[in-house]
Amino acid sequence: MALGGLRRHVGQxxxxxxxxxxxxxxxxxxxxxxxxxxxxxxxxxxxAALQLKEVAMAAILVAGVLGVGLPLAGRKRRALRxxxxxxxxxxxxxxxxxxxxxxxxxxxxxxxxxSSPCLPATPWRRFPVPGFVAMAAALATLVLDFLATxxxxxxxxxxxxxxxxxxxxxxxxxxxxxxxxxxxxxxVDAEDERKAPLLQTHCHGHSHGHGHSHSHGHExxxxxxxxxxxxxxxxxxxxxxxxxxxxxxxxxxxxxxLGVSRSPCTIRPLVAAxxxxxxxxxxxxxxxIAQAQFKNLSAVLMASFFAITTPAGIAAGAGLTTFYxxxxxxxxxxxxxxxxxxxGILIYMSLVDLIAADFLGGKMTGSLRQQVMAYIAxxxxxxxxxxxxxxx
Length: 392
Description:
By secondary structure, this protein is mainly alpha-helical. It has helices at 2-24, 32-39, 46-73, 85-114, 121-124, 129-177, 227-260, 264-292, 296-320, 329-359, 368-387; strands at residues 180-186, 198-208, 212-222.
């Protein structure tokens, strides 16, 4: 009897779960009134929407290229060097923009999608799914941050060990053939003082025959910097890569959302808002790439990938308009989950790797005026991006 009751309850549970899954993943359009509310009643014009999408693609592409390109192109210029007051203030403003993007825009969009009446009440409206997913994404980013940092530190130690072994071999070879030798440690005139010093050996050989000849050998090898210098450089590499991952993930979602819209009333305010958002996100990412000191090719590839992601998402969304239904339960669930994940990544990156690293670390060591300007820029960036939620 008890076994039969247990089977009945299990069967009811499985049936209920299957019904909820089917309702959540249905591709059928919602009720007409919900669709009209999403698209804007009386404001659906496919031709005008397509023209605005083309304008948006061009504006966002230009804004992204300018934003990510300025810190990279200005690495040799005094005003835009990564240790200048102007760069720190601009990066603080960009960090505020990214923080507001995560809290005010992405998390809000996720809550709006997952609380839609098109979705079943359980679990989407009876449990705070967006906040839970954002928290899980932030914790996952923490783990990824930790593992990536350890990986690059181990890689740097192995490279340093190989360089030191090569230096020792070079010293043995030169001492056997030179009469005197000077070993000095010199630094390279580079943009970032965190670059490790170079071990330089000077070999002077003298031979006397019919004349007097001198043999000068110069061996330059990279020596391992201090542990703090290694950690700072490794952190810059990890931060730039994880930040790009978070920005690119939500840029695809934003581009698709704009691309599938058929309402000029919805698209028009998004053009300026997304261009503003793309410029300062690009500036923050470009600053991290510049601080990581990637090779030129790697830096260009990372910058280009960021710049084209949102326009590519808009183009893909525009192509999917004819058969993609953004108001179906399946689309709402996918959009809500991805928005939540992006919000968690952006909130973690902005608070931990941008704001805390600069404001609580050793970079904010300038004058009191410089520190106050950085805090003002941070608050202005967060407030300006938050205010855009009124229109977009």
